[in-house]
Amino acid sequence: MEISEKKVYTFGGGTAEGNATMKNLLGGKGANLAEMASLGIPVPAGFTITTEVCNWFGANDHSHPADLKGQVEAGIAHLETVMGGKFGDAANPLLLSVRSGARVSMPGMMDTVLNIGLNDTTVQGLIHDEVSKRFAYDSYRRFVQMYGDVVLHVRGEVHDPFEELIEAKKQSRGVELDNDLTADDLEELVGEFKALVAKQTGSPFPDDPWTQIWGAIDAVFLSWDIPRAVAYRRLNDIPGDWGTAVNVQAMVFGNMGDDCATGVAFTRDPSTGENKFYGEYLKNAQGEDVVAGIRTPRPINIAGKDPENPLPALEEEFNDCYKELVEIYLKLEQHYKDMQDIEFTIQKNRLWMLQTRAGKRTGFAAVRCAAEMLDEGLIDEDTAVLRVDPEQLTQLLLPVFDRAAKAKAIEDGKLLAKGLNAGPGAATGAIAFSAEEAVRRVEQGEKVILVRVETSPDDIQGMHSAEGILTSRGGMTSHAAVVARGMGKSCVAGCGVLDIDYNAGEMRVAGRTYKEGDSLSIDGLTGEVLDGIIEVKPSEIVQVLINEEMNPDESLLFQQFNRIMALADERARMLVRTNADTPVDSTVARKFGAKGIGLCRTEHMFFEGDRIDAVREMILAEDKAGREVALAKLLPMQQGDFEGIFRAMDGLPVTVRALDPPLHEFLPHSAAEITDLAGKMGVEADKLKAKVESLSESNPMLGHRGCRLGIVYPEITAMQARAIIQAAIVVKKEGIEVLPEIMIPLVGKVNELRIQRKIVVEAADAVFAETGEKVEYMVGTMIELPRAALTADEIAEEAEFFSFGTNDLTQTALGLSRDDAGRFLPHYVEAGIYPADPFARLDQEGVGQLVKMGFDKGRSTRANLKVGICGEHGGEPTSVIFCHKVGLNYVSCSPYRVPVARLAAAHAVLQEG
Amino acid sequence: MEISEKKVYTFGGGTAEGNATMKNLLGGKGANLAEMASLGIPVPAGFTITTEVCNWFGANDHSHPADLKGQVEAGIAHLETVMGGKFGDAANPLLLSVRSGARVSMPGMMDTVLNIGLNDTTVQGLIHDEVSKRFAYDSYRRFVQMYGDVVLHVRGEVHDPFEELIEAKKQSRGVELDNDLTADDLEELVGEFKALVAKQTGSPFPDDPWTQIWGAIDAVFLSWDIPRAVAYRRLNDIPGDWGTAVNVQAMVFGNMGDDCATGVAFTRDPSTGENKFYGEYLKNAQGEDVVAGIRTPRPINIAGKDPENPLPALEEEFNDCYKELVEIYLKLEQHYKDMQDIEFTIQKNRLWMLQTRAGKRTGFAAVRCAAEMLDEGLIDEDTAVLRVDPEQLTQLLLPVFDRAAKAKAIEDGKLLAKGLNAGPGAATGAIAFSAEEAVRRVEQGEKVILVRVETSPDDIQGMHSAEGILTSRGGMTSHAAVVARGMGKSCVAGCGVLDIDYNAGEMRVAGRTYKEGDSLSIDGLTGEVLDGIIEVKPSEIVQVLINEEMNPDESLLFQQFNRIMALADERARMLVRTNADTPVDSTVARKFGAKGIGLCRTEHMFFEGDRIDAVREMILAEDKAGREVALAKLLPMQQGDFEGIFRAMDGLPVTVRALDPPLHEFLPHSAAEITDLAGKMGVEADKLKAKVESLSESNPMLGHRGCRLGIVYPEITAMQARAIIQAAIVVKKEGIEVLPEIMIPLVGKVNELRIQRKIVVEAADAVFAETGEKVEYMVGTMIELPRAALTADEIAEEAEFFSFGTNDLTQTALGLSRDDAGRFLPHYVEAGIYPADPFARLDQEGVGQLVKMGFDKGRSTRANLKVGICGEHGGEPTSVIFCHKVGLNYVSCSPYRVPVARLAAAHAVLQEG
Predict the structure, then answer these.
(1) Residues 737-776 of B with CB under 8 A from A
(2) What's the pLDDT score for residue A420?
(3) ipTM for the whole complex
């Protein structure tokens, strides 16, 4: 095995042998530490052992290359020089940390050892008084514990044996907190820990600092191949031969006294994106203490002080260090050209930077940072577009709770439960337990939260009327969740602790009982369910863009959003269409930038008003003649719907899908409902019941639906085709540019499409002949069955366009019912069997193969085949990027996902390089 | 377009220019006529225009190559010379037929014109007396009618206008049958027909024989591209550029008087295969008359005379012709080396052969013919194997009605209804409307027909006990049909006219009412349902091989069957295993030649006796501990089952599948059953009901089943693995050679298999450690989801074998629920959308791609991967041949399909080369 001569790269003291580009050799952490050091930023000095050494170690029976020893020793000499102090020295001991650091971050997967170099002799070098004595022994016992666990594998069957000793010590001392143990207690514990190690390993604890450091280095190398790390690599496609680097660094301490501190800061506000330095610190504390939140952290600067509780700022207490920190943060932002999340420690009035990385931010902050950094000339347009995570855009579009009002509600104990954050946005209103009640209350001017065990297509009207939807059953892809996201409604789903009792007309939770009409609030961004009304307002973007109730000039956020979106559209190759079934949805989507409708589900119109009666009459008809009578009633209704949609989409293509769901979805199922409907329709209840039963299916998803309906009942396809073409002719006369695309669903074999296409063409020709008018239209198909993808070359002979229905394609390719997967899919995702819910994020490895195959085969037969996707995945960024890579013409998604998909489409181009 | 110089091939008069090998150029019919002519067999002389001319015609604006005219005229001169008479001659007119004839038979798709050459002049040449006058005008009117339709397209909107004229003529004459019209009537009709043609086409009917012949030839060429022919080609993968040949042949007539006759014959008995000449004829008749069955046909020879109704034989009435016919049939059998189905006509005491082709035969006849022709030295061993259609073998294995007894029953009006012939074989016995009642009656010594609306896994015991199963609902792949075929039971399914009323305990059909215990018979070969008891006997093969109640030496059929099967096994490369869940089924399958078990469904044992109680206890357990208690009860039961199966399969591999169906399949669903079970189990009915409801699924086929159970409840997999390994160790100690293969179902992603495999290996290692014994075993998976096939390379990393579960693979690839497809799949097959039920015959184009992909990808990772198939398709011949082509190691099918699959596997090899 070949290995480079240079195995150790030092950093610190204003220089470094490595830099940020050397991640493959030095790992991410090592490369970044080198980069900071080169910038002259004070990082604790240290060195990085290369990933090559890790691989050599693995391939050579866990031994070291001969020259490694000398290079490590030289590295330690280097950091002694920079930091002052000496490793293993009794008087002025320098302590070291050893950390893993692979090419990409593998959080928590591999091992770390701190405070290396302590033994009964060197510990004395840290002790100057009582305060430093406690610090010294606390550091010492932490070291023995960590080394014992990580390097020597001293572990218990159930409990950590070191923690058991600490517990015993506290009991014998009659104290509760670790902090209450004295320096002497801790010294005793060190002795007990070492005895434990000796007993379990059969050898005394290694007191020699050099033995310690080599033990820690080897432990990190070994941790590259422990099962959890191997599993993580497999899940994240990280090759085993990348190896990990090892970072050896001098320890610095923020907890040595009142001239010490530790803190975190953001170079801009991570919540709003405003360009102001923002952070917190704690005096005489370790980094963990800031995170743990036991002590109230103080503001980093005077500007950040809370007027109500004005704690002293770092700017006041450590003014020199603060000034240096400001210089550093400005330098880091300039260097990395992004908002940074930084960690620092002040040890005896000296500032040390521990880490800098791109700061996590809200969607609001992402947009503002990107727009303002572009203005500042810090980044270019491409970078500005890449800086906004597409998924985060949804935060900008949805209604929000007034921040203070919600905080107060939680303080007042009004948080009732937490479910799945299935549809972001805030909603507040009166409880309705049925769709009808929701509609009724909304008509009376109330705002409503629809509360159901789960929802079904019958509830669509109620969901439309409601502010938000809350269910006790169903996952992130349940009917409620999917439809809510499509409508841009807030939704908390699968909140299992709710006890919803339709009969009693009440919901029980957290010891309280809620009746219809009682007030409730839900936060779809967090999954929280809260008692009472909390003030909600539409997002600023929606106020400007959709509701047009706010002037664009007044909204900085809107202007910045608009700017980023415009830059994105300039870059994207793929178009974004929308899934919309009504003129209203179409208009919203168009305002969000949709370039057409990719999926108009005709059956969603079937539930409106009295239409369902005609639909049911059609289903219950004895023969074709009877069906045609009912279809004739539906024709003008459907035509009217299409006219409205065509007008809203003037100049843009509209894909209309022929009837898809199984007919039993339009019939009632309970005995009472059947009796009711039978009376209304003037048929015998028994006869109706028999019809309902005869239509019931074991697996409706794989049943008599899609084009199978149009094959058995060609008159349905004919009516729908006629409604579309007639509508197109009507609006064309009005001067509307109309581009209808008629889509046949659930085709598995080209013959099906051939038969359906013929019916459509005949219906269109008949309308042309009757009216003397013509419109251009296309006929295409959904590719939503594996067989369709496998034989897409044949299907493309009859199809002018394809639209991948990746919802059903996922269901069939994985053999996974979206409605039923809730019982085991969460377990699957948790166990890492699937990296994500395949209904939310396209399973590229499996379903993606079918998409690629379908695309390639389709284009092989018809070079100009238009190809899109209209599953839920069309609005999910990683899936959108995948579609771009395959070569699709467009993605289609629900109106509120359109901006997300537009941005993702731009990212796809920019990621190509 | 290039075209050969020779465009016309003549035959007749003891010679021919073509022969049987020239099907591509002359079509099947032309090549065979040439072959017969070359053999010196008297066929009406004629000639064939090549398929090349058809293609030239299509590519050149429906014109002819310049030299075609001369070659056709020479052809007609040739047939005039051979036949005597002259085309278009007034005194001795020769009439011609023009028929299509493609490379493969396309029955009824293209056009034919007979009696060409007739006009008012030539018709006189046929008239010698009153009898011949009627014949002459009848031929003439038929010609004008046929030519008017086929060549001149004179057709009505609704009714055939020629038939309307005939109807009118009959009314005006006051007669009922066409035959009652006189020669004068027919002469009048000819005039009326011609007037009709002139009116509809605007031109007089062509009287010139040469105009007629060219019109007919062009009509045949044109018919190659009419829609029905194009559709037929598409469905049958016949390329459009094959073209059709045109056969022009002299007409001969069997209806010119009492010195004329026409008949059909088989060179051996098509029912039994016995080597005797067998046939029927009619005097003074046309071929259609024999088929129409209006007149009782007479036997061809004295040996075939019916003692009860001794009509004169051809051998007696036309002795010279008969002797010639015998010579010819012997020559044909010798030449074609197969049993022939021949058609002949005697015109004025002269014999003409119209057609010879391989005769259709029963399975019994196929075996006997093959074995005896092999003995006779007529065919070689390969040919003998190919001569038996694998599918037909089932006829030899199933119980049969006594032929006379059934005929009498039908004569007595006992035929009640006809359903789907879902499981061949005859069954007779007392009606039972429930599985329990079936078991009870059988225990009391009765034979039972289980009559259900449809069946479910709960009915397995009853189905096992019953002689046959009759259902009123469900298709060829319903639970009843599939299970019955698996068990080798007779089954008539989906017999919709049965009105089965469980509450009243009766079945109403054909105006009669049947109670439990009433007698009924069903014929699964025909789908017939008959009143009362009809004598049934097991097939001879089963008597010898399975029941061992008949000496093999006594059964000629068995010896011949055995011989063919032995020859097949010598040739087959693929092994045939069986799907069997019990020692009894295993033993039967082994006797039928199974080389192992390819699928043992452990859950089928769960319904036996009290086991279901332990299963239900496991399902209803609150936690893992509770489940483990119940599983501990199941363990010894499962182990015992496996021991029995391993013993039956000594020396052969046994693939055991881990639990597959969703758990709700083991629970009752009706309120009454739930209450009942709750009492039995000592739990609250409400709680049980809630559990049943919580387990119910929208699409159970795509739900919580297969390895998803073992992932969520690993203890189930662990128990089953332990039962298998413990059983293997027990029987190994008895000296049994045991080869267990543990199969994980419904894997979609390699991670699932990895987790399940680990559980199995751990359980096995534990057993080895406890017992100090070891057995070899394999762990593999089913490939039954598209995603598994798409990622089979990864899955093969963890799998030692694959077994394609093509039932589920078909359901998912086509998005087609086997349980629900009955509503539209028959329509699909009828409309030619799918050529066959894809659950019966593997959809090679779609699902087959996944099988091939899964195989290739699997082998790419693991070169020695063992691959089989265990869906229903494993016993279907075309699917077996496909599996061979892909390269599979074995197919697995139900015991009674094993011989079918063995023979198909041999055919696969022989078809290769």
Answers:
(1) 746, 748-749, 751-752, 755
(2) 84
(3) 0.81
